[in-house]
Specification:
The complex is a heterodimer of chains A (about 290) and B (about 300).
Chain A: E1 14-18, H1 23-29, E2 36-39, H2 49-60, E3 63-66, H3 80-93, E4 98-101, E5 104-107, E6 110-116, H4 122-139, E7 144-146, E8 152-154, H5 161-172, E9 175-179, H6 180-190, H7 194-198, E10 206-211, E11 215-216, E12 221-222, H8 231-244, E13 249-251, H9 260-275
Parallel strand pairs in A: 1-2, 1-13, 2-3, 3-4, 4-7, 7-9, 9-10, 10-13
Antiparallel strand pairs in A: 5-6, 11-12
Chain B: H1 8-16, E1 24-26, H2 32-54, H3 56-62, H4 64-77, H5 92-99, H6 106-124, H7 133-137, H8 141-146, E2 148-151, E3 155-160, H9 164-173, H10 178-188, E4 192-202, E5 210-211, E6 214-215, E7 221-231, H11 233-244, H12 250-260, H13 264-273, E8 277-281
The chains are: A alpha/beta (about 290), B alpha+beta (about 300).
Chain lengths: ~290, ~300
């Protein structure tokens, strides 16, 4: 029997990112997948065809939602119309949680359609924590905060990335979605030891894990979510799971989407990795919980 | 290096405006210019992908080079202030109309852009509760006078010189040279008006609810079916007028029929029979329109 992270959360098992082209096949074939992550922005607005597809998936499988437009660390005002759409979608799909990123996506109304990096400063910690608190108050639920890969850093960083994320999570009572691939990309780009950063994060703060592929360029690495997962990332995942026990882990594939059968093979590989982790998971009730009901 | 004080908002402004400075450290061996160009390319790439997804038939008929040039011009010149790319292509048809008036073959492209955008928007519209003749007949006259209706959101009225639905089907079924079909269409001189409907197809999955052959809005969607209903000129005029209204009453519909010299009972029967009307509010507060925040 699969463990659950929260009272009504995801099984502590491998999951899969479900993208629009594969939804009809999943609804028809009902593959054995423990849970799916849906890209929330692809399933809005409420009542649309894509929205109802998300609800159809959620009737069969446990799901969580992953969004990209909260602009959590932005200085522009929060978009409460957008947050309302997410709230409806979370309710209608009974999604375990919504996650978004430690980044900004727009400034002065100009949208980048990208996850832009932050300086790791006290000012940014305070701002991001306050924004997350506002979002959680509105949603009535805790959210997950994901680390991003970056091609740019602030010369005057006051702390490391993990120190930044831990401080934000502690102040806002959110949890973390740890993207191991993004730590690996930042390791290549800025010579920051990925494992040293990962092992700082308390296990009780981690609710979900992402792995994905990246591509090397002539000057560094870019997080493409389109290449196969690198050996280094698999090894970091294994070490993290050994340290903290099995937790919901997922392979992200957004570009160069292969056929569903290929994705399911990758899912099997991840399931095997989790199954090989012999460390017992913390029991429900131990560790740190968000202040909002699960 | 000594710390360079930088406010968060200045950091964000400089990145959005692509203004490199000494406070930034680029990745690996990249230059700041390369990194800022990467972010700019990412933004343009996301917008371009949204246009390709929304206008696949237009892209194919225009040809890759021409369509990419159109996309880049649209990206550079058309402001867009939403994080969601679902609606990014909304202005493309008007942009084509206004920018390329002197290019004769763009008549077809403009209509195709309008047609394909209609299909895109249909997928984003919520399904509402269909109103039936039985429901209307059960009301008092006073209730009928005030009952709020709107046109089914998954329908859109169009007019064009070409049989765009045939072109669309040709593209979907990948039947060979689409340019040949486009040329045939033009030579035949079609002048058609139609109503395009997007409806969910139900794969016969458990929990789907079918009653009287009408798919429930709770049915599990497995695909989208695009249906085209050919209209005469007056009917297309009526539907275009109805689409402009957020809501209307039966007296409003009667007045429209009078203006267009359409028989009101016959028109109402047709609308009801084909389930083209939905209700916004009924006496008693039931069947209210779902709030989507979507600007119809």
């Amino acid at each position: 029997m699969a463990d659950t992270c929260f009272a009504s959360g995801l099984p502590k098992a491998a999951g899969l990112g479900l993208r629009m082209p594969h939804i009809p096949a999943v609804l028809q074939q009902r593959p054995e997948v423990a849970w799916f992550e849906l890209l929330a922005d692809n399933h809005l607005p409420q009542g649309s065809f894509a929205y109802r597809q998300a609800c159809a998936v959620a009737e069969v499988y446990p799901v969580c939602l992953h969004s990209v437009n909260m602009n959590l660390a932005g200085v522009d005002a929060l978009d409460f119309a957008y947050l309302q759409q997410l709230k409806w979608l979370q309710f209608d799909t009974s999604a375990a949680w919504i996650s978004d990123h430690a980044c900004f996506t727009c400034y002065g109304g100009a949208h980048s359609h990208d996850l832009l990096p932050l300086p790791f400063t006290e000012e940014a910690v305070a701002h991001l924590a306050q924004r997350i608190t506002q979002v959680q108050d509105f949603l009535g639920r805790s959210i997950l905060l994901e680390n991003v890969s970056s091609s740019l850093q602030y010369q005057g960083n006051e702390m490391t990335e993990s120190d930044f994320l831990i401080e934000v999570a502690n102040r806002s009572n959110c949890r973390l979605l740890v993207d191991i691939n993004n730590y690996r990309v930042n390791e290549i780009n800025f010579a920051v030891d990925a494992w040293a950063e990962l092992e700082k994060i308390p296990g009780a703060l981690i609710a979900q894990i992402h792995i994905a592929g990246f591509e090397k360029t002539e000057w560094g690495a870019v997080d493409t979510h389109g290449a196969p997962v690198s050996e280094e990332v698999w090894q970091l995942l294994a070490k993290l799971l050994q340290r903290h026990g099995t937790m919901p882990s997922m392979l992200e594939r957004d570009n160069d989407l292969p056929k569903l059968a290929v994705l399911l093979q990758e899912y099997e590989q991840l399931s095997h990795c989790l199954a090989n982790n012999t460390k017992l998971s913390p029991q429900a009730g131990e560790g740190r919980h968000g202040i909002y009901p699960a | 290096m000594a710390s360079i004080p930088l406010k968060l908002k200045d950091w964000q402004r400089k990145i959005i405006e692509s203004r490199p400075g000494p406070e930034f450290r680029p990745a690996g061996s990249a230059s700041l210019e390369q990194v800022f160009a990467l972010y700019q390319n990412n933004r343009n790439g996301s917008r371009r992908r949204a246009l390709v997804l929304s206008f696949p038939l237009l892209a194919k008929l225009m040809g890759r080079g021409r369509f990419e040039a159109l996309c880049q011009a649209y990206i550079d010149e058309q402001p867009y202030h939403s994080g969601s790319l679902n609606y990014y292509g909304r202005g493309l048809e008007k942009y084509l109309s206004s920018e390329f008036l002197d290019q004769p073959d763009l008549g077809l492209f403009q209509l195709l852009a309008k047609f394909e955008w209609c299909l895109q928007e249909l997928l984003l519209k919520p399904a509402n509760i269909i109103v039936t003749m039985a429901q209307l007949q059960a009301m008092t006259e006073a209730q009928q006078q005030s009952f709020q209706l709107c046109f089914m959101p998954n329908y859109v009225a169009l007019r064009s010189y070409w049989s765009l639905d045939a072109l669309w089907l040709w593209h979907q079924q990948n039947l060979g040279s689409i340019q040949t079909l486009a040329a045939k269409n033009e030579a035949a001189g079609y002048n058609v008006a139609w109503l395009v409907q997007a409806e969910l197809t139900d794969g016969g999955l458990p929990n789907s609810q079918m009653s009287d052959g009408v798919p429930s809005h709770n049915a599990m969607p497995t695909g989208v079916h695009i249906a085209v209903h050919y209209l005469n000129g007056l009917e297309s005029e009526l539907f275009e007028q109805l689409q402009k209204k957020t809501m209307f009453t039966l007296p409003d519909l009667w007045r429209l029929c009078e203006t267009l010299k359409l028989d009101f009972p016959t028109t109402l029967q047709k609308l009801m029979k084909r389930q083209w009307l939905t209700c916004i509010s009924a006496p008693g507060g039931a069947n209210t329109l779902i709030e989507t925040g979507y600007d119809r």
